[in-house]
């Protein structure tokens, strides 16, 4: 009996290895790839969505824009063409959630520094205060990589419309003052087709890890 097993030991090992490979292939075929949802306005808390788009159930996209970054360069949708990007809303004088959000955006920048498919975009909700010079100072202090991450200012109404009608990520208290747009802590994941694919708490480290995982899922989806 021992001679029998000794004689066929190599065959048994090969058979076992082949069986493992076949089982692995079958499992990968049968297991569906994870796909991120496409968020439409009617799926989001109505407090964060402008009434003019709340009814939209499909085909929602980020609108075209024309803003100015920390270097005084005009930034448009063309700068994010065929890119996955993470967007948020902040202001440089914010002392509550913004510093935490900026630190987490910096972490994403560092972890994806060599990834040319992913960019970052932060919109000031107080553009009348956050001039190009102020944004540049803030960018230097926070370690912003100009090739990866744009901090943008510009027309207040355009930024407001982007927040409420495109990114679905801001409230308004309607007082008409410099802080009348109340931004959320949300980071918004946008795919190469300008669709929203995820919302994440920019103050929560666990959500940052989830965001990075979801970026990997999006990249596989695009292959």
Features:
SCO family protein; 2 domains; alpha/beta; Glutaredoxin; 223 residues; single chain; two-stranded antiparallel ribbon; five-stranded mixed β-sheet; 9 strands; 6 helices; 18% strand
Distance between the termini: 52 Å
Tell me which CATH architecture of the largest domain applies here.
3-Layer(aba) Sandwich
By CATH, the topology of the largest domain is Glutaredoxin
Number of helices: 6
Helix content: 25-40%
Kindly provide the radius of gyration, computed on alpha-carbon positions and rounded to a whole number of angstroms. Answer: 23 Å
The number of distinct β-strands equals 9
CATH homologous superfamily placement of the largest domain: Glutaredoxin
Q: Structural class, from helix and strand content?
A: alpha/beta
pLDDT averaged over residues: 88
Proportion of residues in extended strands: 15-25%
3D shape: globular
Output the CATH class name of the largest domain.
Alpha Beta
Summarize the biggest pleated sheet. Answer: 5 strands, mixed
InterPro entries: SCO1/SenC (IPR003782), Thioredoxin-like_sf (IPR036249), Thioredoxin_domain (IPR013766)
Binding site for Cu cation: 94, 98, 183
Family: Belongs to the SCO1/2 family.
Protein name: SCO family protein
């Amino acid at each position: 009996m021992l001679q029998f097993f000794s004689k066929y030991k190599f065959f048994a090992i090969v058979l076992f290895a082949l069986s493992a490979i076949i089982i692995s292939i079958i499992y990968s075929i049968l297991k569906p790839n994870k796909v991120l949802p496409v968020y439409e306005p009617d799926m989001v808390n109505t407090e964060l969505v402008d009434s003019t788009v709340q009814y939209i159930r499909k085909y929602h996209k980020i609108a075209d824009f024309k803003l100015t970054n920390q270097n005084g360069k005009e930034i448009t949708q063309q700068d994010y063409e065929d890119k996955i990007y993470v967007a948020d809303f902040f202001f440089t004088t914010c002392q509550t959630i913004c510093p935490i959000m900026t630190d987490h955006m910096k972490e994403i920048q560092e972890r994806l520094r060599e990834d040319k498919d992913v960019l970052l975009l932060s919109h000031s909700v107080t553009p009348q205060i956050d001039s190009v010079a102020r944004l540049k100072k803030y960018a230097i202090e926070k370690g912003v990589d100009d090739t990866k991450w744009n901090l943008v200012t510009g027309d207040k109404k355009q930024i407001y419309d982007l927040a409420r009608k495109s990114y679905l990520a801001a409230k308004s208290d309607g007082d008409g003052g410099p802080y009348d747009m109340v931004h959320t802590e949300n980071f918004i994941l946008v795919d190469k087709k300008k669709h929203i694919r995820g919302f994440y708490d920019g103050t929560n480290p666990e959500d940052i890890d989830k965001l990075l995982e979801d970026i990997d899922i999006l990249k596989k989806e695009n292959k």
